[in-house]
Amino acid sequence: ATTTTTTTENAHTSKRHMQRFAALRTTTATTTTTTKAVKTSSRRRYLKSSSAAASANTFQTPTRRVSLHFARRKSSLVKTPSTSSTTTKTHTKKIIVAMASSSPPSSQTTTAEFIENFNRDYLQRHKSYEDNFWETKMDLKGNSVENLNTSFNALETFLGDQNTLEKVRELLKRTDGSVSEEQKIVLNQIEKTLKCYIVESDDAKALRESMMKKEGTLQKSRNNLKTQYTDKDGKVVDTTPTVIRTKMRSDPEESVRKSCWEMLRKNGPFLLDNGFCDIIKERNRFARELGFEDFYDLKVTNAEGFSKKKCFEMLDGLEQATKPLLDKALEMLKKEKGEDATKPWNTGFALSGELTKLTDPYYPFEYAPEVWGRSFSKMNIKYKGATMRLDLCDRKGKYPNGFCHWPTAPYKTQDGTFIPSETNFTSLATPDEIGSGNTALTTLMHEGGHAAHFSNIVQGSPLFSQERAPFSVALAETQSMFLDALCEDASWQARYAKNRKGETIPWELIERSIKERHPYKVFQLRGMIAVPYFEKALYEMDEKDLTPENVLKVADEVEMKIQGGLAGRPLMSVPHILADESSCYYHGYVFAEMAVHQTREYFFKTGDGTIVDNPRVGKELIENYWVHGSGNPGFLGLVNNLTGSPLKHDAWVKELGVEVEDMLKEEKAEYEKALASASSSSKDEIDLEMRAIFVHGDDVISDSNDSNFTDACEKFRGWIYQEWPKTKTMA
User: Is residue 12 within 8 Å of residue 140, measured between CB atoms?
Assistant: First the structure.
């Protein structure tokens, strides 16, 4: 079977949080575009459009999709494409311009027609933006920041249309029985979403377009920033941000680790010298024009449904509860590892350097996709017919963070037809670097959790399943972080942490890991909360004080106060702070972590008290967390409904305070129990109800539609051995 790829003078690059496949890409240009067959196969669902306005495939993450689909205008449904090769000509630039302005709905439009038309038109714009996002972030051939900005503005304009909002409110006021209760739920969600984007002020509109243009320019400059470190012999080495972070954890030479840290510290001055302060100023002006305190207040209110004040009241409680644990951990670090261990380039290595080397053989990167798929399948996690594109390996110019986005947000049409999702999913593995396999596997569990969540949202509009406001950041991250947390459980490691010979990680390494890392887990928590505290301070600065020198000073002050010293990951190197959609976002990870511990506590206390390989887990997540999407009852309500308690930090703080000996006793019992029951797990069929396509930039590596998921993983392994021969010699 074949899929189609659109090529033009200006192809698109990669996006921000998700992985993308370049088998099928839509490109926008000022001229015509040609769609030609590309050698890939399609077994599940590649959604294809017969209209120019719908063409493109995207893949996105945190942050999420993987596959191609195109909305057909006929019957407002997304259809399964034929497998024949086709050649078409379309005027893509006209499409994007047309997207920016849609005619208001007719007064004669029925409720069902209005909802179907809205869903179709929204999905087209959403997909166009996500395609451009993916291509820009993945640095695909011919990507265009101009097209990214244009498609973003078209989507924002569509969501900011006052006439549509008035029509929605008109329909909601009807009392003649022409609007069903189910349709009211959809209309309320449309109203809720539009209210996040309606911009009535001309000044605010101008600010929005200006700040997005500045952000696009800065991002392009950032892609050209040279990432280098000095090796032990004094040679300057060109590399990627992922390798920099990996070496800080694992390189035995302190001079190399320090060089890597200094490279990360260069991010701040670079961003500030290329206009970041002006972006902060314009974001705040935009937010205040809309009546918010500042940009942070706007973002948290739109995404979570509560104010910045409420947000930091919850964060302050967690910060105060964990400050004594931080002080205790810092003193223990100095006592056990020496004063030098507190230096920012040494802390990560002191806590994991040798251990990372010892455990590395049990996390071979090339097996990570199959391990992820098998683990999810055993928990009865399904993807409901989704298509996922996975771009897993690092390369120059690629966005330096894993993510998952959805070019096609799943939904249920008015006649009950379910439109499955497309997911773009990316991680940044360097297969022959020590520690990269563990990192990649954790990323797969995390981003795969996002994809599973969004694939199972079954509501009457794609607005329930798109990752931007008003979707709760905390709700989205709870699902992914709950699943990647399994990688630290002894019971999970006994089943899935195996070397290339199939040998299970020994208990002694798990025991050592707990002894060496558990007392210092509070460092991770404090590193997480440092980001929202920094962004809060950043957006509360007076414009006259927003200078590069002051911003760097504030960043260092927050690191010292919250983390107890300069951070191994400098705050100005955190990629989330740069992009509009991910800035003022990180508190969501913190609240999600609270919910993760609360959810884990619930599963351990109910049923058979297990999570790993428990088919009940997938069922309960789908029914209680996933199916609702961004609709009612919302993040706080969903956590309360599943766990029977309001969201609190108690379970998290309690886990951090567990004595090492008590944890060892409990984990060893789980490890031995898992060993006894895991003998046949590696032979079971992997059924995720999903099409998986493995890509590397513009190249397709393997496709599960050619046979099955396991075979696609095997082809991916072969490609890894070919591209990174060192891994084959390890096998």
Answer: yes
Which residues are CB-neighbours of 472 under 8 A, at least 6 positions away?
303, 304, 305, 588, 630, 634, 635
> If DSSP codes are grouped into helix, strand and coil, which group holds residue 293?
coil
Burial tier of 87 (Cβ tally within 10 Å: 0-12, 13-18, 19+): exposed
Cα-Cα-Cα-Cα dihedral sign, residues 374, 377, 383, 385: positive
Q: Are 196 and 158 in contact, with CB atoms under 8 Å apart? A: no
Q: Are 30 and 79 in contact (CB under 8 A)?
A: no
The structure tokens listed for 306 are: 């509560």
Distance CA 326, CA 313 (A): 20
Strand partners, 14: 135, 136
Q: Any residues with CB less than 8 A from the CB of 87 and at least 6 apart, and which? A: 34, 35, 36
Closest to 671 measured CA to CA, from 496, 536, 524? 496
Determine contact, residues 546/281, Cβ cutoff 8 Å: yes
SS3 447: helix
Can you name the residues that pair with 700 across neighbouring β-strands?
695
| 177: DSSP letter | S
Residue type, 95: I
Give 327-333's long-range contacts (Cβ < 8 A, gap of 24+). 327/564, 328/519, 329/519, 329/520, 329/522, 329/523, 330/564, 330/565, 332/519, 332/520, 333/520
| Mean pLDDT in consecutive groups of 10 residues from the start of the chain, 731 residues | 30 30 26 28 24 26 26 26 30 35 56 96 95 92 92 92 95 94 97 86 88 89 89 94 88 95 95 95 94 94 88 95 96 94 93 82 94 96 96 88 88 96 89 84 91 97 91 92 96 95 96 93 96 98 97 98 96 91 90 96 89 95 96 92 94 95 96 82 80 95 96 96 81 55
Phi/psi of residue 49, each to 5°? -110, 150
DSSP code, position 682: G
Helices (H), 485-586: 490-496, 507-517, 521-540, 548-563
| Largest interatomic CA distance in the chain | 80
Encoding tokens for residue 457?
């949202």
- CB contact at 8 A, 422 and 406: yes
Query: And the tokens for 292?
Result: 């918010």
The DSSP bridge partners found for residue 393 are 429
| Cut 0.85: pTM above it | no
Closest C-alpha among 239, 62, 58, 64 to residue 143: 58
**Contact (Cβ atoms closer than 8 angstroms) between residue 132 and residue 142:** no
Q: What gap in Å lies between CA 253 and CA 609, rounded to an integer?
A: 44
